[in-house]
UniProtKB/TrEMBL annotation:
This is Fido domain-containing protein. SUPFAM superfamilies: Fic-like. The keyword Coiled coil applies. It comes from the Bacteria. InterPro entries: Fido-like_dom_sf. It comes from Solidesulfovibrio fructosivorans JJ]. Residues 4-31 form a coiled coil. Keywords: Coiled coil.
């Protein structure tokens, strides 16, 4: 019987790495251009739920950058901020509603860019979507870096590459440019034509050089799509 591989996420290894970063975040902070708030168990738990959701999207074969798929990007942001607990989401109701409005204003530009670059490498598409999401005006009210990392991971794993996962080894090389991207504006000519392109190329190279296969699983499927 013929078979093929479907790539998924190694959630156990991802959790191990994220908790290692959290436990050693003081050490990481000393290397950063701008110190960041420490990671908490809640941050990690929500981010892990986000990676689980990405894994489910891959299993289902959902296409994020389709009219139906765009809602999944919004859901990823809700997850990194609030998790999946309905009670917590009720508490954040007004915030999530405003986030939905912000998302509706910004996603078309990003989706349009992605469609134009569909033939480019997954590294380039993942980096480009991340930069467009994190730069001003940001796609979401909060959680742009975390959501951007999850969307980038989906793009990468969909093409058989490892996801992006924060590690102690790559943390400085990830956080420092991410901080700089946050202060550039898509609607300013110099930022868009020089700085954002520069950061996109740097992030693309970062992905090419640092993605780790231990965070990826290859699931062998038979011709009927069963593992």
């Amino acid at each position: 019987m013929s078979s093929h591989k479907q790539y998924r996420l190694n959630l156990e290894s991802i959790e191990e790495s994220l908790r290692d970063v959290m436990d050693n975040f003081d050490e990481v902070n000393e290397t950063l251009l701008m110190r960041r708030e420490p990671l908490t168990d809640q941050h990690i738990d929500n981010l892990l739920e986000g990676y689980s959701y990405v894994d489910w999207l891959l299993e289902e074969g959902e296409e994020l950058f389709s009219p139906r798929g765009l809602d999944h990007i919004l859901e990823l942001n809700h997850i990194v901020l609030c998790g999946t607990d309905d009670r917590v989401r009720m508490e954040y109701g007004p915030h999530l509603l405003e986030t939905r409005r912000r998302f509706a204003d910004g996603i078309d530009e990003i989706a349009g860019w992605y469609e134009r670059k569909r033939h480019k490498s997954a590294y380039k598409r993942a980096a480009g979507v991340y930069v467009l999401s994190v730069s001003q005006p940001q796609l979401f009210l909060e959680g742009n870096h975390r959501t951007g990392a999850l969307v980038a991971s989906y793009i990468l794993v969909q093409e058989g590459l490892p996801p992006f996962v924060l590690t102690r080894k790559n943390a400085t090389a990830y956080f420092n440019p991410s901080t700089l991207i946050k202060y550039r504006h898509k609607e300013k000519f110099l930022d868009r034509q020089y700085y954002l392109k520069k950061y996109r190329k740097e992030l693309q190279k970062f992905f090419e050089e640092t993605l780790d296969k231990r965070f990826r699983l290859a699931i062998r499927l038979d011709k009927d799509g069963k593992d």
